[in-house]
């Protein structure tokens, strides 16, 4: 069960990814904005969402209605949101493996690929070197750690080629 503030940021990224996926599919702009607002709300919470669920205060958050509250509860209980899994378009194989890099969960990789247009390891390396990656919610890795992991991934790919 995901807990803590990192969980809030991961959930916020998941909601942002859902909003982007809905946008690319031409979905209702009000629904897209609801996910974006929910992401902002969750990312800026003072306490973990699991605590709000435990105390019964989740629905008191601005912009969190019945549907989003159910998705948040599902995330806290299972670590994922089925609606998100259904929305996801498969990432290319080489991009999908980025979620093994430190600090890059599946929602963050989707965010990098779909929102920021990061398509190659070179793009990811440039982003890490610019120190802009640390501004993304939920990314809890230093640039040096990520750069070292990117190099290890490159070495592994070179050996398998």
Q: Please state the structural category.
A: mainly alpha
Oligomerization category of the chains in this entry: single chain
The radius of gyration computed from the alpha-carbon positions, rounded to a whole number of angstroms, is 16 Å
Count of spatially separate domains: 2
Percent helix among the residues? 55-70%
Order of helices and strands: HHHHHHHHH
Shape: globular
CATH first level of the largest domain: which class? Mainly Alpha
And the CATH topology of the largest domain? DNA polymerase, domain 1
Q: How far is the first residue's CA from the last residue's CA?
A: 38 Å
What is the residue-averaged pLDDT?
87
Poorly predicted segments: none
Task: Give the second-level CATH assignment, the architecture of the largest domain.
Answer: Orthogonal Bundle
Please, how many helices?
9
Strand content: under 5%
CATH homologous superfamily of the largest domain, by name? Answer: DNA polymerase beta, N-terminal domain-like
Summarize the main sheet: none
């Amino acid at each position: 069960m995901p807990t803590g503030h990192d969980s809030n940021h991961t959930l916020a990224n998941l909601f942002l990814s859902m909003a982007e996926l809905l946008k690319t599919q031409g979905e209702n702009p009000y629904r897209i904005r609801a996910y974006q607002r929910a992401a902002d709300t969750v990312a800026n919470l003072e306490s973990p969402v699991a605590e709000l669920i435990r105390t019964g205060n989740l629905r008191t958050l601005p912009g969190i209605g019945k549907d989003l509250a159910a998705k948040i509860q599902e995330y806290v209980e299972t670590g994922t949101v089925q609606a998100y899994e259904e929305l996801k378009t498969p990432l290319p194989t080489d991009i999908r493996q980025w979620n093994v890099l430190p600090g890059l969960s599946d929602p963050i990789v989707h965010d990098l690929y779909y929102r920021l247009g990061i398509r190659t390891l070179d793009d990811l390396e440039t982003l890490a070197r610019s120190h802009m990656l640390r501004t993304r919610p939920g990314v809890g890795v230093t640039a040096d750690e990520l750069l070292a992991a990117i190099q290890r991934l490159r070495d592994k790919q070179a050996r398998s080629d």
